Each structure stands twice: as C-alpha cells, then as structure tokens.
Amino acid sequence: MLCNPVMPTTIRLKPETESRLDLLAQETGRSKAFYLRQLIEDNLADLEDIYLSEKRLEDLRAGKSTTLSADEVWGELGD
Question: Would the pTM of this model clear 0.90, i.e. be above it?
C-alpha cells in the first residue's frame, strides 16, 4: 500500500491575516498548519468549481472547445 507523502508548501499572508491565524492557533492550542490545511481541504472543491468553470467558459468563447445540446448528451447516454 502506498503512503501519500506530505507536500510542504510556503505561502505569504498579509500581516493582519497572519496575526489572526497566530491568535487562533494560540487560543485553541492547534497549529497554524492545522487551520490552513482545514481551509484548503474544506474550500478547494468550491475554488475548483469557480475557476475551472471560468476557464472552460474562456475556452468556449475563444473557440477552443465546443458544447453539446441536451439531445446530443441524452443520445450519448442512451436515453
């Protein structure tokens, strides 16, 4: 069984955000990494929906992709 390696990542935060994160970690006894990981894991799907949808729309408008009608989709699915 393969183990998923942890990928260390560095981010830059605004000083105000860093202070808020420091205070949260200090008051709760959890690490800043815990809260950053939680934020990413809880919100990544929403960010993917937003930004990948925007990219698909850009590609469509630029003629780099096409769409299917509902009838074409249902036809491919076999009704």
Answer: no
